[in-house]
Specification:
alpha/beta; Oxidized Rhodanese, domain 1; five-stranded parallel β-sheet; two-stranded antiparallel sheet; 4 helices; globular; Rhodanese-like_dom_sf; Rhodanese-like_dom; STR4-like; Rhodanese-related sulfurtransferase
Length: 140
């Protein structure tokens, strides 16, 4: 079985995403995690490059349902039309969000692989990769 190409612009590492945010004036980081995650786990900090993170839940908490207004909320928060860099905890929800945005006519939607906290190690702890482990700026 062959793997098909993504139905979104592609995948970038956290470091590549940060570089794009630094270099592309219209690039936007869209954090698709839940309000609880933003509050208790933290957020990327883009103040050093003069930007803010756009926060729009892909799945609502606590019911886990897809946010029916997701595309419209992202469009309203990102009117510049530049690249959209989508971030979740580990890079799974952000793929679905990037696919939804691309299907809705926003083809410059990228998934940040590894996410904010990264994948699990052999002990079940999120400490193997991701935005935070890459040493990129964040705040809690």
């Amino acid at each position: 079985m062959t793997e098909s190409a993504p139905t979104y612009a592609g995948d970038v590492t956290p470091a590549e995403a940060y570089t794009l945010l630094e270099q592309e004036p219209n690039a936007t980081l869209v954090d698709v995690r839940t309000r609880a995650e933003w509050t208790y786990v933290g957020l990327p900090d883009l103040s050093g490059i003069g930007k803010q993170v756009v926060t729009v839940e892909w799945l609502s908490y606590p019911d886990g349902q897809v946010n029916p207004d997701f595309v419209e909320q992202v469009r309203a928060a990102t009117p510049d039309g530049g690249p959209l860099l989508l971030l979740c905890r580990s890079g799974v929800r952000s793929v679905a969000a990037a696919e939804a945005l691309s299907a809705a006519g926003l083809p410059n939607s990228y998934n940040i692989v590894e996410g904010f906290e990264g994948g699990l190690d052999e002990d079940g702890h999120r400490s193997v990769n991701g935005w935070k482990l890459a040493g990129l700026p964040w705040r809690q």
